[in-house]
Amino acid sequence: MRHLLTGFEFTKEQYLELINLASQMKANPSAYMDCLKGKTGTIMFEKPSLRTRTTFEIALYKLGAHGVYLDLQGGDLGKRESIADYARNLSRWTDCLIGRVFSQKTLEELAATGSVSVINALSDLYHPAQAMADYMTVKEHLGKLEGVNLAYFGEGNNVTNSLFIAGATLGVNVTCFSPLGRGPDIQIFNQAKAIADKNGCKLEVKNAVEFDKSYDVVYTDTWVSMGDNTPLESVKALYMPYQINEQLVEKSGAKIVMHCLPAHRNFEITDEVMDGPKSVVFDEAENRLHIHMALLKTLLG
User: What mean pLDDT value characterizes the chain?
Assistant: First the structure.
């Protein structure tokens, strides 16, 4: 049994195998339509979702499996029954637990007390499947991953953490530009940096937006993480220097522009860039499906 809880579980070879499998599934989905026939997956979401829920449900279907969605946005998980009892019950009926949760500890308890694979579909600290789809998209458009320079702008969050982890493992140079005190998790960064040092790539966190080199990719996310009710207008002045607009894209030298969505247009990214010729935002969203298919086959097949 294997889990995807953080992204640290995968070696470089395993990341590349997963991305290559996703590409094969994208090119020829019918070849995999029965590879998980008879399997089931429970999709447990404490947070709203468009892309993650839709793509995991369709991924299970396309592989011949069946997904059961549990809407836990009412706060039932751990209250109506303990997390451990959820895991023990669901492990008797289903082959994996796919969790979109508020706390990473929830996923860790599901994995510790259940007896089936647990897949992180987003937690407060990590969004590993998103980063996998992101780097699949980079490889599609740039033809490589090793040595690519990626710049992330905005709040250091779960997506940033996962871009560092997967990037360090794959040999990508990742720089995060964030306001002082709004950067990524320092412990996760240090752990990823140790991997990057071994793989000959570089991870950095900077406050000032300055371009001392060209970047192949510029990337952003919403300025306020899901579950945080802070109005965007109240943080606009803080984050506006990190907005991805035409001027920033030109100065960066970027070949492609990415956003994990949902986007608050004309806040973290302008319409001109998001709908412009360098945007691969919707390719990135599509690749969530193919990465989820590859993950499910890898963990359950």
Answer: 96
